# Entry
Amino acid sequence: MLKIDNIEIPGLAPISFELAAGECLGVSGESGCGKTRLLRAIADMDAIEGSVCIDDLCQQDVSGADWRKRVALLPAESQWWFDTVAPHFPVGTSSYSALGFSEEVKHWSVSRCSSGEKQRLSILRLLANKPRVLLLDEPTANLDAENSRKVEALIAEYLEENDAVAIWVSHNQSQLERVASKRYFDFSENGMVSLGSGGAAI
Amino acid sequence: MNTLISLSAYDLMLASLLVLALAGLGARMNLGISQQLIIAALRTTAQLLLIGLVLKQIFETAQLPLIILMMTVMLVVAAWEILSRQKRKIKGWWGFGISIFSLFVSSFLITLVALLLIIKTDPWYTPQYAIPLLGMLLGNTMNGIALGMDRLIQTAWQQRAIIEQRLMLGQTAMEAIREIRHESMRAGMIPIINAMAAAGIVSLPGMMTGQILSGTEPVEAVKYQILIMFLITAGTGFGVIAVLHLISKRLFDARDRLRFDQLLAEKNNE
# Structure
């Protein structure tokens, strides 16, 4: 479903891969090795060589904003610009309970949320747009084990229900083994290296 | 009461003693302002005397090409002044072009409208009206434009992570900086809105005061002042809208990506 063809990121060999609906690609590597740049390139946040397509729809076929509605990037640190939580979500969002929040969370003041709460809310905000491709940059970095598992379960469920795909960046090897369904990449000096395919092979 | 009392060079020297006294006191108290003060006072004397002579010449001959040249020089200097007030600038000629264009909208066009449709001078370029009018519009709208421009670029720079986050959530460039644009529009318009609100109560606007001093009926002077206030307000508003629109466009590329790298020169160190 997601087809990456020869994306060029400075300092790395051209990157190509494909993901089928429901698949999750795990990515790990030293900080500064290009993981975030890869995600930004796929989300069309940086100008790149190469092509990125979802089925028959490629980046250049739609406007930047329309592309990013389909290809959602979750940055390592979420940003909030209104005082309370609700205005950051599409009108009528009601799925706050998915990560253990009550409806009350709508009226919470963002400045009083903990980093973990913000991270969970930013994941809900990301999913509220119903994207086909999730690009997750350390989505559970600020979460405890229990909440990390909840996020993992939520993402797995989302991918299955929406025929979506995910690229999951994490430093946590055991988490990647759990979530990366088909393939698993590691960035080394030479670029992206496949370490195995199929969860069992890792 | 109907004739202006002419000032002699001696009168001005008396006034300059006040500035000199201030500079002397500043030097004694080590306030570090005296030198700047003296230089600025000398500059204002030289510049105004010069412009007085130029205006005398232009008023006497009233030749259109000369008037246009004068107006163009004023416009270019104002555009340059706007840019020099920016902490971060749009790279290259774009910054200058954007300033010139928005000043053109805010001052040139508005002056033209005032001359042709409101005051109906004959000929329309009568320099006694055209040049002071343009000068007042440039001087005042320049402030609003510089403030709005600076606020937009500075806030966008400070909030670049937020802008990118909003883009990542599928917002268009214009949606992602909507609040910043609102705030910048406000920043540009507040001075003139305040000036209108305070006019006549807290302050007597300069042009009206000048006309009264030179013997004009107060009510006539007031009518001109109201006209000028409206022209400045409209000019500032249109000028700020133009500058915000053009700069917003330059902050993003065709794919709605934030592109500070292409657009902003290094921060100017004082």
User: Anything to note?
Assistant: The radius of gyration of chain A is 17 Å. The CA atoms of residues 7 and 86 of chain A lie 36 Å apart.
